[in-house]
Amino acid sequence: MKRACVIGWPVEHSRSPLIHRYWLDLYGVEGAYEKEAVPPEEIKVFLRSLGVRGYAGANVTLPHKETALALADAADAAAKAIGAANTLWFDEQGRLHASNTDAYGFMTHLSEEAPDWNRGGRPVVVLGAGGAARAVLHGLLAGGAAKVLIANRSQHRAEALAKVSGPSVSVVPWSEKGKALAGCGLLINATSLGMTGKPPLDIDLALLPADAVVADIVYSPLETRLLAAAKARGNLTVDGLGMLLHQAVPGFERWFGVRPKVTPALRAHIVKSLVGA
Ligand code: NDP
Questions:
Q1: CATH for the stretch 2-101+248-274
Q2: 12, 66, 127, 153: which to mutate for ligand 1, most atoms within 8 A of CB?
Q3: Across the chain, how many H-helices and E-strands are there?
Q4: Which CATH class is domain 103-240?
């Protein structure tokens, strides 16, 4: 029986087991997907013994994504560019491969919900400069975004990200994020603001064009205050759950040999777990 897991600290909140166990049942795969709570001081030893523990691979979540990339024998272009890995698997020679599927997950969902998100190359505004924002930015640039403006509370992190991203990425001060919306075609919240238990995202949407798309990568709650406000003024909105579902696809295929589908039934299954979370 093939086994995979999600490794994090904490890991209890992870929805990955729900997604992968749903697919294991649906496709009749004899496999298992477990949660592994591993503290930072034990992560190197744990990852080095992943195969001995009987795992075909793993998802990796906070705070271990950078260590996972560093310890893998090989990494794909996305993981290298983002500087973090969220998916690991062994090849036939036993070499550990690292990938980052967050950019794939975000862009796949965005392209499904808003196929013309690029809006003729109008600027994209990204809020945040953490790990998820790095993945979103990588996806946007690979997907053809011509101009991206990043705003982050700690401006030096936005500047560091812009510096390694090339001339199409520039920084706007966090206090000016509302002004940056004038003329943009897409606004993305890639901070943790708006998540259950965190402060809401405070942004004035007055200058946001009526045809701009608004995406949030926060998925708990499913409809954040940002998305509700955007929807109320007629903007097309894209929630964060699709990213979570799509980022899981490549890992499942690597470990269990079936390319799974993201369907409305899977979405409904996970939404049930978010209610009251
Ligand atoms: P990080 O800790 O790496 O980054 C957090 C980001 O949020 C930083 O930009 C940080 O700014 C900003 N932030 C946090 N608190 C505040 C605040 N009070 N005011 C202003 N900015 C703030 O986390 P990740 O990038 O990994 O994750 C961010 C969010 O994305 C989380 O909510 C996570 O659940 C979600 N996520 C969703 C995924 C999905 O599949 N839908 C996948 C991955 C993440 P600063 O740099 O100034 O600290």
A1: 3.40.50.10860
A2: 153
A3: 11, 12
A4: alpha beta
